[in-house]
Amino acid sequence: MNLLRLIIILYGFLVGACSLTPKYEMPNTEQYLGEEYVQTKSEIPAEELNAISWWNQFNDPIINTLVENALTNNLNLRVAAANVLESEALVRAATGSRWPQVRGNVSGERSFTGSSTGSSFSTGTDRLYTTTYQVGASISWQADLFGKLRSAEKASIADWQASQTDREALIHTVIANVIRQRVELAIAIQRLYVAQQILESRKQTLKIVNRRYSRGVTNSSAVDVRLARENVYSAEAGIATLEQNVSLAQHALDILLGKKPGTFFISQIDLTELPELDDAIAGVPARLLDRRPDLRSSEFRVIARNERIGVALADLYPDLTITTSSGWRDAEFSDLFSSQSLFGSLLGELTQTLFSGGRLRAEVDAAKARLQAQANTYANEVLQAIREVEDALVQNHKLNERLAKVIQQVNEARLAEELSRDRYARGVENLLTVLETERRRQDAEDSLLQVERDYWN
């Protein structure tokens, strides 16, 4: 039997070798979904899974510009991309371990032995020198008898897929954070504009109070003047805080865009207006959960844990390594590549751990426990995803109701403020009523902006 035939037989034995990895079964989460989810669960086309341009539905050029910058420059996304490259390289390394390992060597050796004359003292002339030159190559191949290498490769592939979906999930997170920060910045600017309008309104009230006091109108006193001034200073202090909030929101957006804080490139005027939002969908099928990359990433990690059970089980059984080497060895370099200098060998080595103090069995148990933990983690993430969807639907419904009421509140507060100031100017109303209506109008305006921000989020 020649060497080639032996290798072919061994390779066929390798291909047909058994695998000890348990059959993978997707963790059962339908018990958490409820009937309305299970009935609508279906497969999703790959192109729909990979689509990440959902921000276009807002029809906002500013959002499109910000997202484009973030996807290009965000540093966290660059870290995630590097993690994907690392996982891909580990897959190639795991695949390479299943192939024969070929090594070449070139060596030269100069050695000597003492003379055989029996003299108790030897000089250089009493020594026998030899020189050996060698050029050779060896092929070492571990036969994957029990699927250890295949399981390790599949686990690496699952880890690589998990890193890809982790990156996709991070892309969604960064985009969502960019949109949230764009909304936060727009609301901060609108709050600043409203505060500036309220400041002007309070200054107008102060003029009325000063005019009444200087004319000696009944029920007008220095206390009214002080209160009106305090109202103006309070509004000015609030503006300083709101200006700070605008700057901090710009800095946060700069970081998301991978830019130096303080280099924001869109004017406040362009940022002020937010597009109208469509109503949320009425029902949510289970396929919406299937589109979440964080859930798919978690399932890939379950697959990886399952494959590593096979790796741990295979360690309980023998490893077979086939090594063949060949080359030329001669004392004269000129005769190195002659047929008389040729040598070769073939070695088959079967190794089995006879005693490890229970370590190998413990590693199998640990691998099984890690699989169970990851499966439960996946199930918990499904539950959390359902909660997030259900919470969002409830919040959307209640925010719609609240928004309608707050709009009415703002309208009434504006009318009350205008009426009270007019009545005060005519001496029908006292100043405290005017100040109270101004405060209530500011609170109502602020509540409206906060509800709009919550609705976007």
Question: How is this structure best described in words?
Answer:
The relative contact order is 0.13. The longest helix is centred in the middle third of the chain and has 67 residues, at 148-214. Helix 7 packs antiparallel against helix 8 (222-256), helix 7 packs antiparallel against helix 11 and helix 12 (359-425) runs antiparallel to helix 13 (431-456). The chain has a four-stranded antiparallel beta sheet. The two termini are 73 Å apart. It has helices spanning 3-15, 30-33, 35-38, 46-50, 61-73, 75-96, 148-214, 222-256, 268-272, 287-290, 293-314, 359-425, 431-456; strands spanning 101-113, 128-143, 319-330, 342-351. It is of the alpha+beta class. The radius of gyration is 39 Å and the shape is elongated.
Concise synopsis of the structure shown:
The protein has 457 residues and is an alpha+beta fold. It has helices at 3-15, 30-33, 35-38, 46-50, 61-73, 75-96, 148-214, 222-256, 268-272, 287-290, 293-314, 359-425, 431-456; strands at 101-113, 128-143, 319-330, 342-351.
